[in-house]
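I am writing to request your help with a piece of structural work I have in hand. I am sending you one protein, given as its amino acid sequence and as whole-number tokens for its backbone shapes. Kindly check, if you would, that the fold set down in the tokens agrees with what the sequence suggests. You will find the record immediately after this paragraph:
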Amino acid sequence: MSLEDKFKERTSSGLYYELANNFVNSLLDKYRETVYYDKKCPFSCVYGVILSGCAQKQLVIPNVSCGYLVFLHHLKERHLDCNNIDSLQKKHNDILKWIKQIIGKIIKELCTDKIKILRHSKSSLKIKWKGLKYHIVVAWTFSKRQYCEFHYIQNNVHVYPFSPDQLQIAAYDLIDEAPIHQRYIEKMDKIKYDCIIII
């Protein structure tokens, strides 16, 4: 194999998808084990995942790039209320905490240094999974995006490169939801402003 071929192989976004699917399958396996005895597992509200960033754009650079895995849960618009923002934030935190705990269990079970938690906060995780780095975040959507659901294109394949048509659909979905999100952002800003005035 030539040096150029090795470079292409290492920079292939395909490897990001392959290992991301391996990671998601590992999580789903652990979820199935967990849900048997814990019916209130935080991960139970997650319906899908998407890989974004450099991998989706096919602009992977070795030792620099990082895949962004966004786990999605469905939130009905009527359930978004200024009085429950704290509980929604807690749900996000609980999902990330559960993912972090599962990664810790996998590391112990496999006795490996190829899987690591590099950084964590309340809003994100950064991990190394079998040699590649991934940021992990949780987001909600007002409607379930079928093309982001677990096993959408085939069993055990959750993230995949979008075709131009799928990218266009995703763009239209973002355009449709943007005004709703903007309305809630403005509403929350107004509530914060009103609270400051009252104080």
Remarks:
- The helical segments are 3-10, 13-37, 54-57, 85-110, 164-198.
